[in-house]
């Protein structure tokens, strides 16, 4: 069977979870896929798991980085090898839902749009040592529900809140036509790329289906769980700022305003909690400058609690 879609699966030291990610591909109701597994110089058994999958199923292909280069570079390595009409991403510690490829590729085939995005949920550890999928959060639903085919940011600015790479399948032509690639050496590398996709696509689709279960690791080892570290915070704020700058440059004022409000409401409060007792004053200074810059764009618009309290505190730092 000629594959229709390539799924790029980057992984670094995720042997504890990679088997579930690969099983979620094997369980897809749409079977005309191929996967490029990129081992980013793992020090555990991730590379061996990838090799075993490829030995057992020729839909898997493995790339081994000789030295760790980061998630953005790993995704870029995969993109260079894509030969199918469609491409998507799956981090090796997450899981696709069984109908994810069927729904995303099927939607694009019917609509002719450049990419499609779906909803996602958190996989959180429970007291029994397992992981339980949560509910679709309001900001995720705002971007993906109800179904919209052939839409744009002009028509649906709230889509800009869906900034993760792995909730989408796109036409490979979009990456070739626009020269899109992930930034290298930065955390949160998909934030800017997502906004570039929205602003450069001729049209995109949104569907309310949950397509990915996004793991919050029990051992706290994922990058999203290290926002209390100053270098990680700076990468995070740079990514948020860079994404808004993409929207500004494209003249997407409504999408930029929607993104600013979502960041102030959802992203800033937990960062303020981390900052209050942080040992490094630079953490508070950087967060304060970021909060003031975003607040200046709101014209004093009222925010819900606890976001209003958090923003007021951060503006004083």
What report would you give on this structure?
The protein is an alpha/beta fold. The protein is 43% helix and 19% strand. It contains 11 helices and 10 strands. Strands 1, 2, 3, 4, 5, 6, 7, 8, 9 and 10 form a 10-stranded mixed beta sheet that branches. Strand 2 (33-39), helix 2 and strand 3 form a beta-alpha-beta unit. Helix 7 runs parallel beside helix 8 (230-249), helix 8 (230-249) packs parallel to helix 10 (281-295) and helix 9 (253-276) packs across helix 11 (307-314). The longest helix has 24 residues, at 253-276. The mean pLDDT is 94.
Low-confidence stretches: none
- Overall residue-averaged pLDDT value: 94
Q: Could you tell me how far the N terminus lies from the C terminus, measured between alpha carbons in angstroms?
A: 59 Å
Tell how many strands the DSSP assignment holds: 10
State the share of residues found in helices, binned by percent: 40-55%
Pfam family, one: Glycos_transf_2
Domain Glycosyltransferase 2-like: 6-127
InterPro entries: Glyco_trans_2-like (IPR001173), Glycosyltransf_2 (IPR050834), Nucleotide-diphossugar_trans (IPR029044)
GO molecular function, one term: glycosyltransferase activity
For the structure shown, list the relevant keywords.
Glycosyltransferase; 317 residues; single chain; alpha/beta; 43% helix; globular; 11 helices; ten-stranded mixed β-sheet
């Amino acid at each position: 069977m000629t594959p229709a879609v390539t799924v790029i699966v980057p992984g670094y030291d995720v042997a504890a979870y990679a088997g579930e990610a690969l099983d979620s591909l094997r369980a897809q109701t749409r079977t005309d896929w191929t996967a490029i597994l990129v081992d980013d110089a793992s020090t555990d058994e991730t590379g061996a798991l990838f090799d075993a999958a490829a030995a057992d199923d020729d839909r898997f292909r493995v790339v081994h980085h000789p030295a760790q280069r980061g998630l953005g570079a790993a995704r870029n390595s995969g993109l260079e090898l894509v030969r199918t009409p469609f491409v998507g991403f799956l981090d090796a510690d997450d899981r696709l839902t069984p109908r994810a490829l069927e729904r995303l590729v099927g939607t694009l085939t019917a609509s002719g749009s450049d990419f499609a995005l779906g909803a996602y949920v958190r996989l959180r550890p429970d007291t029994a040592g397992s992981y339980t999928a949560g509910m679709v959060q309001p900001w995720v639903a705002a971007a993906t529900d109800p179904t919209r085919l052939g839409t744009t940011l002009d028509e649906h600015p709230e889509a800009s809140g869906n900034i993760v790479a792995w909730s989408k399948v796109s036409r490979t032509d979009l990456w070739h036509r626009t020269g899109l690639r992930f930034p290298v050496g930065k955390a949160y590398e998909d934030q800017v790329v997502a906004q570039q996709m929205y602003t450069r696509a001729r049209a995109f689709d949104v569907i309310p289906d949950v397509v990915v279960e996004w793991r919050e690791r029990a051992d706290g080892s994922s990058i999203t769980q290290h926002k209390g570290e100053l270098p990680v915070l700076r990468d995070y704020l740079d990514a948020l700022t860079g994404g808004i700058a993409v929207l500004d440059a494209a003249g997407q004022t409504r999408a930029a305003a929607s993104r600013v409000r979502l960041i102030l409401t959802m992203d800033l409060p937990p960062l303020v909690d981390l900052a209050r007792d942080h040992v490094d004053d630079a953490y508070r200074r950087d967060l304060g400058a970021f909060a003031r810059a975003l607040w200046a764009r709101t014209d004093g618009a009222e925010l819900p609690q606890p976001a209003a309290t958090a923003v007021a505190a951060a503006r004083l730092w």
